């Protein structure tokens, strides 16, 4: 087994984990190689069948069930169709809808199977794609950190052990064992931004490594911000935020909003900057809505309404 792959698998904490497996090469490799490397680690295979590609989706489900059976592992499947998906499907934001459905499934599985969390097969190429997409959207330094190795989302611990491993290295591991995987035909359409980013990276030699280096630098800057920026109290004087440098002010604003209960998935840089402007510019509205909370400025103080 490749040394980088082995080190990544060894770094997974001892616990009972769910493994999200779509049937594609990446998640298939994660499951097979982890079972090989650490056979005593208790695992539960988790698969979502969105039923978006007809027989192809059902074949993916059968493949994952068969793979889990061959490894003597339990497998939990959630099937979905558009009539039961969240409202975003109807309004057009399908990717957000399916992301929420998967997270809800993971949350249920963690509770029902007493899991420490869910292992995801995102690797170095995926991380570079994420940084490229965020860069194209004008993300600030916090967004350019890329994917988090160990994160919590919706109360679910998500652990990505393969972020230092390339997708090709994972496929090489499968080929060396004469193992097959499922190819998702939707990965070939350029209708999705991530697929377009994948094409750019494939055609631009060296760009992946540049983006990953950018992510490492952004993580270093973020770590400095955590230690160098004071935490704002629940009710703070405007000067406590207004007098910070721009990058520290944005970081402090984001942290304050999250600690007050703002919705993390919708909290972008523009919204953080809006709170900073509330502190710096007395002509801005004194009452403003942020995702999940309302914020008020009164007598030189800012607090949640």
Key terms:
single chain, 305 residues, alpha/beta, Rossmann fold, Uridine Diphospho-n-acetylenolpyruvylglucosamine Reductase, domain 3, 2 domains, 12 helices
What's a concise summary of this model?
This protein has 305 residues and is α/β, with parallel strands linked by helices. It has helices at 3-10, 25-37, 55-70, 88-91, 94-112, 124-136, 167-176, 193-203, 207-228, 238-242, 246-259, 269-280; strands at 17-20, 43-49, 75-79, 117-119, 150-153, 156-159, 236-237, 287-290, 293-298, 301-304.
What does this structure look like?
- The chain has 305 residues and is of the alpha/beta class.
- The protein folds into 2 domains: 3-203, Rossmann fold, CATH 3.40.50; 230-304, Uridine Diphospho-n-acetylenolpyruvylglucosamine Reductase, domain 3, CATH 3.30.465.
- Helices cover 48% and strands 14% of the residues.
- The protein has helices at residues 3-10, 25-37, 55-70, 88-91, 94-112, 124-136, 167-176, 193-203, 207-228, 238-242, 246-259, 269-280, and strands at 17-20, 43-49, 75-79, 117-119, 150-153, 156-159, 236-237, 287-290, 293-298, 301-304.
- The chain has a 6-stranded mixed beta sheet with strand order 3-2-1-4-6-5.
- Strand 8 (287-290) and strand 9 form a beta hairpin.
- The longest helix has 22 residues, at 207-228.
- The protein is elongated.
């Amino acid at each position: 087994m490749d040394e980088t792959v082995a080190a990544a698998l060894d770094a997974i904490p001892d616990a009972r984990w769910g493994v999200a497996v779509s049937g594609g090469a990446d998640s298939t490799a994660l499951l097979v190689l982890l079972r090989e490397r650490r056979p005593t680690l208790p695992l539960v295979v988790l698969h979502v069948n969105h039923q978006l590609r007809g027989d192809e989706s059902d074949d993916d489900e059968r493949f994952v069930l068969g793979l889990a059976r061959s490894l003597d592992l339990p497998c939990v499947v959630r099937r979905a169709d558009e009539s039961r998906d969240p409202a975003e499907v109807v309004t057009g934001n399908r990717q957000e809808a399916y992301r929420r459905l998967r997270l809800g499934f993971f949350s249920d599985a963690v509770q029902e199977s007493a899991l420490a969390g869910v292992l995801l097969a995102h690797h170095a190429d995926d991380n570079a794609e994420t940084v490229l997409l965020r860069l194209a959207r004008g993300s600030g330094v916090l967004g350019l950190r890329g994917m988090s190795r160990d994160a919590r989302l919706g109360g679910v611990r998500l652990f990505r052990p393969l972020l230092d491993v390339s997708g090709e290295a994972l496929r090489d591991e499968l080929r060396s064992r004469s193992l097959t995987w499922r190819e998702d035909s939707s990965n070939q359409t350029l209708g999705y931004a991530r697929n377009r980013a994948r094409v750019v990276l494939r055609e631009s030699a060296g760009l992946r490594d540049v983006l990953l280096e950018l992510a490492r630098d952004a993580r270093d800057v973020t770590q400095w911000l955590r230690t160098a920026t004071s935490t704002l109290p629940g009710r703070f004087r405007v000067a406590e935020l207004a007098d910070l440098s721009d990058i520290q002010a944005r970081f402090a604003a984001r942290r304050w909003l999250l600690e007050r209960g703002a919705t993390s998935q919708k909290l972008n840089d523009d919204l953080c900057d809006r709170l900073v402007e509330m502190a710096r510019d007395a002509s801005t509205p004194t009452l403003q809505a942020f995702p999940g909370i309302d914020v008020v400025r009164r007598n030189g103080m800012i607090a949640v309404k």
